[in-house]
Design brief:
The protein has 88 residues and is an alpha+beta fold. The protein has helices at 11-23, 25-37; strands spanning 6-9, 47-49, 58-61, 66-73, 78-86. The protein contains 2 helices and 5 strands. It starts with 5 loop residues before the first strand and ends with a strand.
């Protein structure tokens, strides 16, 4: 397991991530730290596995309204962010 993960934003997540950084810089910094260091850790009320059509993704609640949905590629040491922005 890598000691630090790379975070890759999908094209669809880039604008949302920039918006989160502008709205909540502290929350964005906390999210980035979490995703680079412990992306698979479950934190009640903060991180959860998604179900249904989003099965296989994890969701990190940045703040009351913003979410980051991602999956982890352990072999490559990469976190792939599929969505970032307001609660979908």
């Amino acid at each position: 397991m890598p000691t630090r993960y790379d975070m890759v934003l999908r094209r669809s997540a880039k604008k949302g991530w920039r918006d989160i950084c502008a709205r909540d810089p502290n929350g964005a910094a906390e999210t980035l730290h979490f995703l680079q260091n412990t992306p698979e850790m479950r934190i009640p009320g903060k991180v959860k596995k998604l179900r249904g059509k989003l099965r296989g993704l994890l969701q990190y609640n940045v703040n009351y309204s913003d979410r980051v949905q991602y999956w982890v590629d352990k072999e490559r040491g990469t976190v792939w962010v599929e969505y970032a922005g307001p609660h979908p």
